[in-house]
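quick q for whoever's on today - can somebody do inverse folding on this one?? i tried earlier but teh output was garbage lol. tokens:
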């Protein structure tokens, strides 16, 4: 398994984002399974404007409050249990 970094991120509708990785792969990812729990992600999921403040920091997407998501679970979603749940994404 090759470790990946995120080099570009573009927020889309809802909790979806278009990510570009170091190998130039581009994917549209639903972030809801990754942000739907935990107090660190509360501002990210509760405020669309805050969600859209994502930036690239240290090779991954991050928000001003320090929340971030490992780029490898976004590239290899089978690594993260949140992806196994297939929970419905709510409308923001």
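ok took a stab at it. sequence:
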């Amino acid at each position: 398994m090759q470790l990946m970094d995120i080099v570009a991120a573009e927020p889309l509708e809802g909790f979806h984002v278009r990510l570009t990785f170091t190998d130039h792969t581009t994917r549209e990812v639903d972030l809801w399974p990754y942000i739907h729990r935990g107090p660190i992600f509360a501002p990210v999921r509760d405020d669309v404007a805050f969600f859209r403040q994502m930036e690239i920091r240290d090779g991954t997407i991050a928000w001003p409050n320090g929340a971030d998501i490992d780029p490898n679970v976004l590239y290899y979603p089978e690594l993260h249990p949140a992806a196994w749940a297939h929970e419905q994404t709510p409308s923001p």
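fwiw The chain is about 25% helix and 25% strand. also The beta strands are 6-11, 16-21, 26-30, 55-57, 60-62. so keep that in mind when u check it
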